Amino acid sequence: MNPNENQQLDNAGDSQGLAKDTAVRKRPKPGERRVQILQALAEMLEHPQGDRVTTAALAAKIQVSEAALYRHFASKAQMFDGLIGFIEQSIFGLINQIVAREEDGRAQIQGIVLMLLGFAEKNSGMTRVLLGDALFQEDARLHERINQVLERVEASLKQSFRIMQTQKNLSLTPDDIPYRSALVMAYVIGRWHRFARSGFKKSPLDGAPNSLNILLAV
User: Fold this and answer.
1) What is the DSSP string of 57-90?
2) Alpha carbons 167 and 54: distance in angstroms, whole number
3) Whole-angstrom Cα distance, residue 190 to residue 113?
4) What is the C-alpha to C-alpha distance for residues 133 and 140, in angstroms, rounded to an integer?
5) Contact predicate 208/114, CB 8 Å
6) What is the rounded average pLDDT for all residues in the chain?
7) For residue range 27-56, what is the model confidence (pLDDT) as tens digits?
């Protein structure tokens, strides 16, 4: 490059300095692009009859190259891992709040169930992940991980049933507790399936309080 070309670049830099600064400021902050990618993936999963999500479609949605996606996630499986991590953190953070707030075991179970149904209604794409539907043909490890999340939720329900038993709010033996918690968990998953089958039109919360009264009947 000759001196004249250097001078021209310097002059252009002076006249376009503000534009460059503006462009720099518009770049996502560290971690923002990862969040953007996960949000876009969740939005694409909100279409229950849609095609399997590909990295090409995901990249097109947020107007970046597939290579840009892989700078933030090593694979699509890692993207789903990120979604499952969000689900896990959100659900168990809320369960901890419910348990800390409610001393009554019955109130804990009611709160946990209504929270799980409400979470699905507000995050329909996440519902497909919870059900494993969105993980079809994906890494088998993802199915194992979401199963572990659901098992942890059921364990939380068991603990609340134990509290109910000690408070004499439910006539059951310790041997009955696993069956009761499994029944409540099956109800939750069934409502998620109904919500997904309806194209996310039938609220999973419809009639939930009455259903809980039956499930928690003495």
Assistant:
1) HHHHHTT--HHHHHTT-SSHHHHHHHHHHHHHHH
2) 51
3) 12
4) 12
5) yes
6) 85
7) 666 578 888 999 999 999 988 565 678 889
Q: Measured between alpha carbons, how far is 161 from 167 in angstroms, rounded to an integer?
A: 10
CATH 1.10.357.10 in the chain, residue ranges: 76-215
Distance between CA 215 and CA 218 in Å, rounded?
Answer: 9
At residue 208, what is the residue type? A
Residue found by looking up tokens 């998620």 in the block: 192
Q: How far apart, in whole angstroms, are the C-alpha atoms of residue 194 and residue 124?
A: 12
pLDDT above 70 for 115: yes
Question: Computed over its alpha carbons, how large is the radius of gyration of the chain?
Answer: 24
Residue 102 predicted with pLDDT over 80: yes
What whole-number distance in Å separates Cα of residue 41 and Cα of residue 53?
A: 8
Contact 114, 98 (CB under 8 A): no
pLDDT digits (tens, 9 = 90+) for 72-97: 999 999 999 999 999 999 999 999 99
The dihedral sign for the CA sequence 93, 165, 206, 51: positive
- Read off the tokens for 20: 């460059």
CA pair distance 114, 121, nearest whole angstrom: 11
Q: How many CA atoms lie within 13 A of 200 on its CB side?
A: 17
Q: Assess if CATH 1.10.357.10 describes domain 76-215.
A: yes
